[in-house]
Amino acid sequence: MENKNYTIKCPECGTDIEVSRPAIINVQNDPEYKIKVLTGELFNEKCPKCGQGLQVVSRITYHDMEKKLMIYFRPITSQEELKTFDYEAIRSAIEDNFKAPNYAIRVVTTVNELMEKIKIAEFGLNDGVIEIAKFVYFDIFTKKFDGIGVVNIYYERRDDKDALIFFCNDGKTRSIMIDPDVYASIEKRFSAVVNAIYTSRVCMVGRDWALRMIKAYSKLDSEKDSAVSVKPELKLLDSEN
C-alpha cells in the first residue's frame, strides 16, 4: 500500500503532528481498510500532547475490484479549495490513466460521500437511483415535517432495510425506508442515465447530477412518462412519527 506522510498542526495547542495516510486503497489487498473508511477510523487522529481529537482528510483513491468500483476522494475543506477545484481536469486525468470495462468511477469531495458510495455498492444498489430517490422522498418529507429544514440526506442500511437518513436543522436525524417499488420505478424510468454511469465514465453522481436528470426527464410527455409511477409512503424507521 502506498502511504503519504503529512504534518498537521493541532488547532488546540499548536503541536505539529506527523500522520501517515494511504494514497491508494485496494480492498482486495487490504480488506481491513474498508472497515476503517466506513467507521471513520481512517480519518481520526488525536494530538499526542493535549489529546484533542482531529479529523484528518487527504486524497485517496479507493478501489474495489470485486464491486468494480473506483472512487477518487478529493476533499474540499475550505472556500479556497472550492475555488481551485477543477472537476474537468480531474476527470480527464482519471480517464487517461484508468481504463477498465463496466466500472463505476466516482469523484467525491467529502468523507460522508465516500462512505455513502461504498455502502451503496456494498448492497448492490445504483447510486444514480439513490440520488433521484432523495428528491422524491425530500418532497414528501417536507410536507410531513413542515418547518423542519433538511441539511443533508445520506443512504444507510437500517434494520436490513434500505433507508435515507435526513439530517435536520433541529439537530435530529430521521430514518426513512426506501420503498422497493419506488426504487424499481425510478430505476426503470431513468434506466438510460442510471445505467450509463456504470460504463467506466467518470462521474460526480450527487445532488446536482440528480437535479439535472430530473429536469431533463420532466420535459418528456408527463402523461406517458412519470418520474415515479408508484406513490411513495413515508415509512419512518425511527421512533418519531
Task: Tell me the number of strands.
Answer: 12
Strand content: 25-35%
Largest sheet: 5 strands, mixed
Seen as an oligomer or otherwise, the chain set is single chain
Structural class: alpha/beta
Helix and strand pattern: EEEHEEEEHHEHHEEEHHEH
**Helix proportion of residues, in percent?**
25-40%
Question: Termini separation (Å)?
Answer: 47 Å
Radius of gyration: 20 Å
- Uncertain runs with pLDDT below 50, 5 residues or more? none
Strand order of the largest sheet: 3-6-7-8-12
What does this structure look like?
Strands 3-6-7-8-12 form a five-stranded mixed beta sheet, with helices on both faces. It has a three-stranded antiparallel beta sheet with strand order 9-10-11. It has a two-stranded antiparallel sheet with strand order 1-2. Helix 5 (127-144) packs across helix 6 (180-189) and helix 5 (127-144) packs across helix 8. The chain is of the alpha/beta class. It has helices at residues 32-39, 79-84, 87-97, 111-122, 127-144, 180-189, 191-196, 207-218; strands at residues 3-9, 16-22, 24-26, 44-46, 53-55, 60-64, 69-73, 104-108, 150-158, 161-168, 173-177, 202-203.
SSE layout:
Elements (H helix, E strand, L loop, with lengths): L2 E7 L6 E7 L1 E3 L5 H8 L4 E3 L6 E3 L4 E5 L4 E5 L5 H6 L2 H11 L6 E5 L2 H12 L4 H18 L5 E9 L2 E8 L4 E5 L2 H10 L1 H6 L5 E2 L3 H12 L23
Parallel strand pairs: 3-6, 7-8, 8-12
Antiparallel strand pairs: 1-2, 4-5, 6-7, 9-10, 10-11
